[in-house]
Amino acid sequence: MTRALLPLTLLGRAALGMLRRIGSVTLFFLNAVIRFPATLRYPRELARAFLQIGWLSLPVVGLTAVFTGAALALQIYAGGSRISAEAVVPQIVAIGIVRELGPVMVGLMIAARVTSSIAAELATMKVSEQVDALTTLSTDPMTYLTAPRVLAGLVTVPILVGLGDILGLFGGFVVATQGLGFNGPSYVTTSWNFLDPVDIVLSLTKGAVFGGIAVTLACHAGLNAGRGAQGVGLATKSAVQAAAILVLAANVALTGLFFGQ
Amino acid sequence: MIELQHISKSFGTKEVLDDISLALDSGTSLAILGRSGTGKSVLTRIILGLITPDAGRILIDGQPMTRRVRRAFLEQTGVLFQASALFDSLTVWENVAFRLRNGRARVGRTEARERAEVALGRVGLEPRVADLFPSDLSGGMQKRVGLARAIIGTPKYLFFDEPNSGLDPVTSTDIDALIRELVTDLGATAITITHDMASIRTIADEVLLLDAARARWHGRVSDLASADDPLLARFLAR
C-alpha cells in the first residue's frame, strides 16, 4: 500500500515545495516593492542597478533583436512563398516581433545576463558575510540590495523591450528591402498600419513582468544562497533556470489574457 | 551590559547551543573559546540579531532585545568579520565611512572621508589607501580596514570574529595589540571569537569556553592558569 502511494507522495511533496517557493518569492517581491520609497536613500545603488540591468544589457538585447527580426523575415518569406503569400512579410514580422519574439527574446536575454550576474553577486555577498555586515551597519539588505534592483528591472526591461521591438522590426526591414525586393516606404507603412496599440501595450507589459520575474528570482536566490562556492553556483543556476521557465510561462499567460477567447 | 539568559539554538537535529547564560559588564572584553563547531559564531550572531534563538532572551543594559532596542544596539556596535566582509564595489574609505554615509544621521561626503581617514590612521593605514578597492589590499590590510569600519562611530560594543585567522604571526600580534588599544580607548564592551590563547591574553579580560553546546568554563583571564578543566588545559598547552 505504502509503496503504491509513493509516486503520489513524491508528487505531493514536489507540489508543496513548489508552492512554498512561489509563496516565498511572492512575499519577497512584495517586501521589495514596499521598500521602493526607502530605496531613494541610496541613489548610488539605484543608479548602479539601472546601469547594470538597463544600459549594459542594451548591446546584447539589440543584437539579438536585429538578428531575430532578420531571420523571421526570411522564414516568413520562405514559408509564405509556398502558398503565394510572400507579401505578408511586413505584417507577420511586425506582429511576431512586437507581440511575441521581441519581449520573449529580451526576457530570456535578461534571464541569462542579468539574473545570473545579480544572483552570483548577491550570493557571493551572502557567503562572504557582506550581507550580515550590512545588517550590523544598520542597513536593511532588502532596501539596499533588493529594492533598487527590482525597481530597475520593472522600469528598464519594458524600455529594453520597446527598443528590442524597434530593432527587431529594423532587422526585418533590412532583410526584406535589401534581399527580398520589398519597397522601403511601403514596408514601413504596411507594418505600422497593421500594428494595433494593444500590441504595443502587451509588449511593454510583458517587459515589466519579465523584468520583475528575472530580477526578483535573482535577488531571492542570491540572498538565500548556501555556503561556499557551491552555494553561489547553485543559487545562480536555480535562479536562471527558474527565470527562463517563468518568463516563458508568463508569456503564455499574458498572451492568453490579452488575446484569449 | 550584555546579558544572555538561557539561550538555546538547534539546526535541524543538531543542538548547537544549550541553555547558555552570561552577563558581561560594560567595558569588559570577553573572549569566546572553543573547538570548531561548538557554537561560538552562532552565539555572537544571536547577540547581533542575525540568528533568532529557539529559546532564551538577550538584555542590553537591562532592556529585552526588542526591534527598537536592537536597532539602537546595532547603531552603537562595530563588527569585524572573520573575512573582513568589505564591500567589493566600494573603495576603502567608502567602506570605512559606510555607517556615516548610509546611517540614520547622515554625514556629508567630505566630512565622512575625513573621518574615514582618521579611522584608517588609528589602525595604522596611510590615507593613500583610501581610494583603493578591497581587492587591492593584502589580508592584513583588509583586517585593518575592517577594524577601521568597526570603530568609526565610536561604538559602545565591539565584536571580533577570529580577528587573526589567515594572518601571519607578526601581523596577528599587531592586530591583537590594536584591538586591545582600541577597546581600552573606546571603553567598549567587546566580544572576540578566537582559538588563539596568546591572543586571548592580550585582548581579553574574561574567557567563556564553549563545548558540546554548553558553557563549560567562564572566568577571568588571570584565573586561566589555576582553572581545573582538562579541555582548557589542552588549549593552554598550545
Automatic annotation (TrEMBL), chain B:
InterPro entries: AAA+_ATPase, ABC_transporter-like_ATP-bd, ABC_transporter-like_CS, P-loop_NTPase. PROSITE patterns: ABC_TRANSPORTER_1, ABC_TRANSPORTER_2. Keywords: ATP-binding, Nucleotide-binding, Transport. Residues 2-237 form the ABC transporter domain. GO terms for molecular function: ATP binding; ATP hydrolysis activity. PANTHER family: PROTEIN TRIGALACTOSYLDIACYLGLYCEROL 3, CHLOROPLASTIC. This is ABC transporter, ATPase subunit.
